[in-house]
Specification:
The chain is an alpha/beta fold and 292 residues long. It is built from six helices and 18 strands. It is globular and about 50 Å long.
């Protein structure tokens, strides 16, 4: 039964942002997935979260036929729901990712949308890195169905908090996150459907690394459990602070996790250990090559 899973919430502070990651077990039933997402997003908001992140492909998980059937344009039902709910609850909502049907294109886009508390779309990010791999004895070829995005996207949540957008497999490409951090990202959203095998062995290490090296908060909302077409996601959604401390982690079932992000502590970390300021981009080249 879906539940609330409380993380460690720091006490005190003047610059605290309460956030949540929603963990889902999406199926091919689009209407049922939306109903669960609605219930758990409302529960997270009732617990005080003002920035909430949903998982990757929350509207449908399954076969290529299932995904194509669930695909829709950005003015379709899923983002319409996200806009109406964000406005009703007065929250920033990162609507995980959906399979977007793009006009005049055969392939779909894997698209994350940030909606602000007024119900307006603040930013749209299309997944840059395609999951074309062999893992856990299974072959995945995301590029056969989906077309990669070409743009790194930084948005802004209420109160002027810079919010970086990414999706799942992007997590293995640190350069994307470094660009977001250099552009000013203080919080980075990671909607995901990480496989069971990679969640168990890599998920936490990658999330903590991206948080530490970019001195950013990371909100990672994962899918969990078995899906149609033999897929299995690993759960363990996490919220990580800029020091690499896991503030909250979900157990292996649907629900939501909460944490308060201490933005003042982040400022102090970046001031006292200024690794972003100490970068030397001109030196990051092979000997003999010209500086970029």
């Amino acid at each position: 039964m879906p539940a609330r899973f409380a993380g460690a919430i720091p006490a005190g502070g003047d610059a605290l942002l309460r956030v949540a990651a929603v963990q889902l077990n999406s199926t091919a039933d689009r209407a049922a997935n939306l109903a669960v997402a609605d219930r758990l997003t409302r529960a997270a908001a009732a617990d005080g979260a003002t920035l909430i992140v949903l998982p990757e492909k929350w509207t449908a998980m399954g076969s290529e036929e299932d995904l194509r059937a669930a695909a829709e344009p950005l003015d379709g039902q899923a983002i319409g729901w996200a806009r109406a709910l964000a406005r009703e609850l007065g929250i920033d909502l990162v609507a995980g990712s959906i399979l977007e049907r793009v006009p005049a294109r055969e392939k779909l886009a894997n698209t994350s949308v940030h909606v602000d508390p007024q119900g307006q779309v603040r930013a749209t990010y299309r997944k840059v890195h395609m999951f074309d791999v062999e893992v856990g004895g299974r072959s995945y070829r995301e590029s056969e169905l989906e077309e990669p995005g070409e743009e790194i996207v930084l948005s802004q949540a209420a109160g002027g908090v810079e919010l970086g957008l990414s999706i799942c497999y992007d997590l293995r490409f640190p350069e994307l996150y470094r660009i977001l951090a250099v552009r000013g990202a203080r919080v980075i959203a990671v909607p995901a459907a990480f496989t069971l095998a990679t969640t168990r062995d890599h998920w936490e290490a990658l999330l903590r690394a991206r948080a530490i090296e970019n001195q950013a908060f990371v909100i990672a909302a994962n899918q969990v459990g078995a899906h149609p077409a033999g897929q299995h996601s690993g759960g363990r959604s996490m919220i990580v602070d800029p020091w690499g401390v896991v503030l909250a982690q979900a157990p292996d079932r649907e629900g939501h996790i909460l944490a308060e992000l201490d933005l003042e502590r982040q400022r102090e970390i970046r001031q006292r250990l200024p690794s972003l300021a100490n970068r030397r981009p001109a030196a990051y080249r092979w000997p003999g090559e010209r500086a970029a």
